[in-house]
Amino acid sequence: MILITTPGKVGLEAARLLAQQGKDVRVLARDPHRAAVLEQEAVQVVEGDLDAPSTIDAAMRDVKAVVLVSPAVPAQELNVIAAAARAGVTHLVKVTSKASADSPIARQRGQAQIEAGLIASGLGHTLLRSNFYMQNLLMLAPAIARTGRFGSSAGAGKVGFIDARDVAAVAAEVISSPATHLNRTYLLTGPELLSYSDVAATLTTVLGRDVAFEERSREEDKQAMVSAGVPEPTAAMNAHAVSLIADGEAAWLSDDLPTVLRRRARTFREFAADHVTAFS
Ligand SMILES: NC(=O)c1ccc[n+]([C@@H]2O[C@H](COP(=O)([O-])OP(=O)(O)OC[C@H]3O[C@@H](n4cnc5c(N)ncnc54)[C@H](OP(=O)(O)O)[C@@H]3O)[C@@H](O)[C@H]2O)c1
């Protein structure tokens, strides 16, 4: 049995891919309705909370492999790692981002703490360290649909955007043949470096109408995220992370995805074409 710890962007798609390969998959969900889309697939959905270790222990029954993907709150993910060790799990795939104990970004410090806990646990593991997800741009979609414009403090900085569906595909591949990927770290990106102006140009082509990018301040970015419903501390952290794009923080690419999946990563143009309705 494979346990996937949340039905978010990566977790839902990984569950779907694994179920289609005939694997036994269970998804832990705080609200099982969020995983309703999996009803068509042979996926077990169990109610649980990453803040409640007893519910994680219950979800670990007969589990040999875990895909750990969540908002990366250290106490929650360390709960999962401890429960996996108790349950005799043999391999854990952790979805992560840049991680550094002295980063100004709290999430990156948290990821470093979680990764250190995972290594100390002695569990067989694989780290999937991804660049920014293309799906982050969906937060801008309502503004793009309404005004044909969007803003960001990323400036002219470039990003190796990756489609979260591709992160899920790598997680599914690795958890299906863990011995090949034991204790490896994969750097996951899309195939190209794009600035936000490049994103606007691609959207203009795909949507068939003008989309313009305008630079804005980190504070304006934060307020836009708060208006979109993101809690204030998370919006502040995310806006800070986006502002670092201007300094080249996300200007990196890797061939790890094509090496693991034996296919190329999805392009932003493909992502945009798949999400025309959201941007329109
Ligand atoms: N976004 C990016 O650009 C990016 C880039 C690189 C790496 N990452 C990493 O990707 C990971 C996030 O993955 P994702 O984007 O797939 O997540 P996501 O779509 O944001 O989904 C998060 C999931 O966690 C669930 N959740 C939150 N708190 C919970 C709790 N206490 N107990 C149980 N479930 C809980 C949420 O459930 P509800 O629906 O009930 O809230 C939701 O299903 C993080 O480690 C992040 O650092 C993200």
Automatic annotation (TrEMBL):
<dbReference type="InterPro" id="IPR051604">
    <property type="entry name" value="Ergot_Alk_Oxidoreductase"/>
</dbReference>
<dbReference type="Pfam" id="PF05368">
    <property type="entry name" value="NmrA"/>
</dbReference>
<dbReference type="InterPro" id="IPR008030">
    <property type="entry name" value="NmrA-like"/>
</dbReference>
<dbReference type="InterPro" id="IPR036291">
    <property type="entry name" value="NAD(P)-bd_dom_sf"/>
</dbReference>
<feature type="domain" description="NmrA-like">
    <location>
        <begin position="6"/>
        <end position="247"/>
    </location>
</feature>
<protein>
    <submittedName>
        <fullName>SDR family NAD(P)-dependent oxidoreductase</fullName>
    </submittedName>
</protein>
